[in-house]
Write a structure and sequence with these properties.
Number of strands: 6
CATH class of the domain at 33-117 and 147-179: Alpha Beta
Radius of gyration: 32 Å
Strand content: 35-45%
Number of helices: 4
CATH topology of the domain at 33-117 and 147-179: Alpha-D-Glucose-1,6-Bisphosphate, Chain A, domain 4
Distance between the termini: 129 Å
Helix content: 40-55%
Structural class: alpha+beta
C-alpha cells in the first residue's frame, strides 16, 4: 500500500513539474501572447534617451523605483483608481531598457509593462452577545485585498503613446541644447570683439608731456 502511495505521489509531482515547465516555455515561445510595438528606435545617444525616458515616466505619474544607468534600466510604478469604482485599483509596473544603436548616435528602448487589478473590500467583524446569541453586533471593521486580474499590457496604444512622449521630450532637449550652445557661442564671440577695460588709457596718457 505504501509503495502504491509513493508511486502515485511521484507521478503527481512529475506531472506538476512538467506542467510548470510547459508554462514557462510558453513565456518565450507563445507568439499569440507576445507584446507587439514595445520597442522603438530614437535618433539620440543612449545617455540622453535614458534621461528623457526617466523624465517621461515621472511626467506620466509614475514613481521611479529603481534606476541603473550602467545597464540602462529604469523601473517605475503607478497606482490608478477606477473612476467608476473607488474600491478598484490598478497597479501598473513599467520597466524600460535603453541600449545604444550600432553607430552609437542612436538608441533603442524596450518597454515591458504589466497591470494588476486589485479590489479592496470593506466589512465588519461580528460578535454574538452572551445573553442574546441570536443577535450579532458589529464590533470592528475589517479590510480585505483581492487580486482580480494580472498580466502584461498588450495594448499597442499604451506603448505608442509613451514612445511619442519620449520623441517630444528628445526634441525639446535637443532644441534646448542647440539654443544653449548658440547663446554660448554668441557670448564668447562678443567678449572677444570687445576691448579689455583700461587697456587704451595708459597708452594715451603716456603720449602727454609731463
Amino acid at each position: 500500500m505504501k509503495v502504491i502511495a509513493r508511486i502515485a505521489l511521484t507521478a503527481t509531482l512529475m506531472c506538476l513539474v512538467a506542467c510548470a515547465t510547459s508554462s514557462a516555455d510558453k513565456a518565450l515561445t507563445d507568439t499569440k501572447s507576445a507584446v507587439h510595438g514595445n520597442t522603438h528606435s530614437f535618433r539620440a545617444p543612449r545617455d540622453l534617451t535614458l534621461r528623457v525616458v526617466t523624465g517621461t515616466l515621472v511626467e506620466k505619474g509614475f514613481a521611479i523605483e529603481q534606476t541603473d544607468s550602467a545597464m540602462g534600466l529604469v523601473k517605475a510604478t503607478r497606482n490608478l483608481t477606477d473612476p467608476q469604482d473607488p474600491n478598484t485599483n490598478y497597479h501598473v509596473t513599467a520597466t524600460a531598457y535603453v541600449s545604444s544603436g550600432p553607430d552609437g548616435r542612436t538608441s533603442v528602448v524596450d518597454l515591458a509593462a504589466s497591470q494588476q487589478t486589485v479590489l479592496y473590500r470593506h466589512g465588519h467583524s461580528w460578535t454574538l452577545l452572551p445573553l442574546l446569541p441570536i443577535i450579532p453586533i458589529p464590533t470592528g471593521r475589517k479590510f480585505e485585498t483581492v487580486v482580480t486580474g494580472e498580466g502584461s499590457i498588450q495594448e499597442g496604444n499604451f506603448y505608442a503613446e509613451f514612445f511619442n512622449a519620449v520623441e517630444r521630450g528628445l526634441a525639446n532637449a535637443t532644441a534646448y541644447s542647440s539654443t544653449t550652445l548658440a547663446a554660448g557661442a554668441e557670448e564668447s564671440a562678443q567678449s572677444q570683439k570687445a576691448p579689455a577695460a583700461g587697456l587704451g588709457t595708459p597708452a594715451a596718457d603716456a603720449s602727454k608731456p609731463h
